[in-house]
Amino acid sequence: MAKIYHLNRLFPNSNFRDGDEKIIENIIEAIKSKSVIDIRSIAQMNYTSQSSISRLSKRAGFNNFKEFIFFLSNEFSHKSINQLEALPFVMVNQDWDLIDSYFNNAFSNKKIYLFGEGFCQTLVNYTYRKLLLKKIYAIDLEGVEIGLVSDQTPYTLITFSQSGENKNGLLKMEECKKYGGKVIALTATENSSYTVKSDLSFIVESGSTSIDHENQNLNYFFGNCLNLMEYLINRYTKIPKA
User: Fold this and answer.
1) pTM for the complete prediction?
2) Are 191 and 85 within 8 A, CB to CB?
3) Burial class (CB in 10 A: 0-12, 13-18, 19+), 29
4) Rg of the chain's alpha carbons, rounded to an integer?
């Protein structure tokens, strides 16, 4: 299987030719290894011409090679550290020891809030029903203030927002922390308010370089979030072997 098997997520408006995928793989590996990245070295590495690399950049949807490399550098220069091996479409801002502690605590205590609006409500509904199968009864906070349902003990809030700037979600974060709870955020936007104010944040690829608030275009965020939640719920609710 190719290392980069989701080019249409990275470049939804591309028009690639045979051989382009391999060249892009080589560029990404060069970025990760911090090699010198210029159009001449990339052309030599791939036994092709500089003009061919320039045309590849335009097929990827960029005006020139520099824009193309800037985009790839932002995408991959730090992912080798923070990207989840089993989930190549997700980055996380903490190490596994801390991730394990958050989810083990949440699922063992069975004290979980869920929140998301718009299309993210679908993610809440799915997660809620999936947790029910594990006999974990989460609380959907849609239209509900935490103060009205809280038993004054800490809960873990799992909240979804593609933009990472959902106002009601940010209020839920504050409410949750008021009672000593933890916040786990799933968003498509690095350095958003969600990633800054949460205790643990997962950056989930949407397949686009900009946020489509109306969700009219190709969007992998919601599907990727479902796969991520499947992985996490399975990881932390496995029945111990006898």
Assistant:
1) 0.67
2) no
3) middle
4) 20
